[in-house]
Amino acid sequence: MTLIRSETADDADQIHKLTDLAFAEAPYSDGTEADIVRRLRADGDLMISLVADRETSLVGHIAFSPLASPDHRGWACLGPVSVLPDLQGHGIGRRLIEEGLALLRGHDVKGCVLLGSPELYGRFGFRSTGSITHGDLPVEYLQYLSFDGSEPKGEIAFAPAFTPAAEDASEP
User: Fold this and answer.
1) Which of 15, 122, 130, 155 is most buried when burial is the number of CB atoms within 10 A of its CB?
2) What is the DSSP pairing of strand 57-66 with strand 48-54?
3) Which residues contact 135 (CB under 8 A, 6 or more apart)?
């Protein structure tokens, strides 16, 4: 049985290892996802951090953080979401996303933005209208789910943890 719960301080190292494993073979990964979660935590930018716990072992994790762009105050970001490779496709990620979004609706946010597969995240109500951009990323992968009927527009900025300073890039 898999329990979805909020992370505790004791989970940080397991979350890091789990995230590394989850993204190790992903062709779209740059290998920084685990470090992003650590920096979000260190910066106090983890609005919601849930784990999937199966018999005292973590098998999944999801993070939500605030967008940093001044024009998008009140919007959150979903990601990264991680599931151990041998358990991907078994509903753990879906449960993390659904439970995370339900909790996020309890915060004072307009909605949620993410960078990801339109086929996957469209199942949860996310959509891309081309109204938001982030550098030269393809707009179809920048998606949002509005909680209040509003639509984000323009260039978005993720929390600083997603774009570390050059000196942070050399840390192990």
Assistant:
1) 15
2) antiparallel
3) none
